[in-house]
Design brief:
By secondary structure, this protein is an alpha+beta fold. It contains 3 helices and 12 strands. It is elongated.
Length: about 325
């Protein structure tokens, strides 16, 4: 339609009529005179409106689903993050419990031996320091650590401090081939020198070639002059094998260490030696011997009685022989 004076006038009239109908409809309420016209319009345009709605709703639902999917993804991601954090916390708590247990046992050992110790944690192994069996601990000279101090844990002798930095130190482990410590056997006080052999038992050279030693005997550190590098009484290990005595001046035995050198975590550096030698008091309780099962053998007699019959036959033969001898004697008389 062209924009003319007549068209503008017609538009104004239509708007005025529309407003008039709206006013009449509102004032009429339920008895509105245009209610019939509205129903007729609904009858005509209702199906069209439903069809358009049916066509448009899937699109709207799809958009809503995409939006909800994003929200669900965010919730899932948040739950996964919370789950991972919970697992990490549980793992950390388990590790902390393990460390607390190790620390408690180590403090008990130190108390029994009257050792003054500085607790430390293993933070590195010795790959960077050559082929030696060493570890790095997180205490150093700032914590009072010095070279040639004894290092132990809840099980026994770990090693000795070799190098010291301000906040860390290197420990030579007792199973290193260059490691040697004076050792004393429990009970008999036989002395010797224990040397590391890597992942094999330690080799102990007893000074007495005729020393009586057997599997299961235990060793502790003998101690060094001025308690460096070793304080006395620290558990070393248990005899696992004894070489035959060949009449030599010394005797060789092999000792399995108490300490597991491949799973070190919490350790203690002895910063104060005991006032007196604790001797064997720091050793763990001896394991109870396993009872040897008793085997009882019961012999059941044969149902045929063959053995008894044979015995009776031999008895009768013996008696028959006696009768014949008596007859001969009578004849001689």
């Amino acid at each position: 339609m062209r924009d003319t004076k007549e068209s503008r006038l017609l538009l104004v009239l239509l708007i005025a009529v529309a407003f008039a109908l709206i006013t009449v409809d509102i004032r009429g309420g339920e008895n509105s005179p245009v209610d019939g016209a509205r129903r007729a319009a609904a009858t005509v345009f209702g199906p069209i409106e439903n069809g358009v709605s049916g066509a448009v709703n899937p699109v709207g639902n799809a958009v809503s689903a995409v939006r909800d999917s994003g929200e669900r993804h965010d919730r899932l991601a948040a739950l996964e993050k919370e789950n991972a954090a919970l697992k990490a916390k549980l793992g950390s708590d388990a590790r902390n419990r393990s460390r607390l247990s190790q620390l408690d046992k180590m403090l008990k050992l130190a108390g029994e031996g009257q050792y003054g110790i500085k607790g430390a944690q293993v933070i590195a192994i010795g790959a960077a320091q050559g082929f030696s069996w060493t570890v790095t601990i997180d205490v150093g000279s700032d914590d009072g650590i010095q070279r040639d101090m004894t290092v132990l844990n809840a099980d026994g002798l770990v090693g000795r401090v070799t190098t010291v930095g301000p906040d860390s130190a290197t420990v030579l482990l007792a199973n290193d081939p260059d490691f040697t410590v004076g050792a004393r056997m429990e009970g008999s006080d036989e002395l010797g020198f224990a040397a590391g052999q890597g992942d094999r038992p330690m080799r102990v050279q007893l000074l007495n070639g005729k020393a009586e030693v057997k599997k299961g005997d235990r060793f502790v550190t003998f101690g060094s002059q001025s308690d460096k590098p070793f304080v006395p009484g620290v558990p070393v290990g248990v005899v696992s094998r004894v070489d035959p005595s060949g009449g030599d001046l010394t005797r060789t035995v092999y000792v399995t260490p108490y300490v597991g050198f491949t799973k070190l975590d919490v350790v203690g550096v002895v910063v104060q030696a005991p006032k007196k030698d604790p001797r064997d008091t720091v050793l763990p309780p001896k394991p109870k011997p396993t009872p040897t099962p008793t085997v009882t053998v019961t012999v059941t007699p044969s149902p045929t009685g063959g053995a008894e019959t044979g015995a009776r036959g031999r008895d009768e033969d013996a008696r028959g022989g006696g009768d014949e001898q008596s007859t001969d004697d009578d004849q001689l008389q």
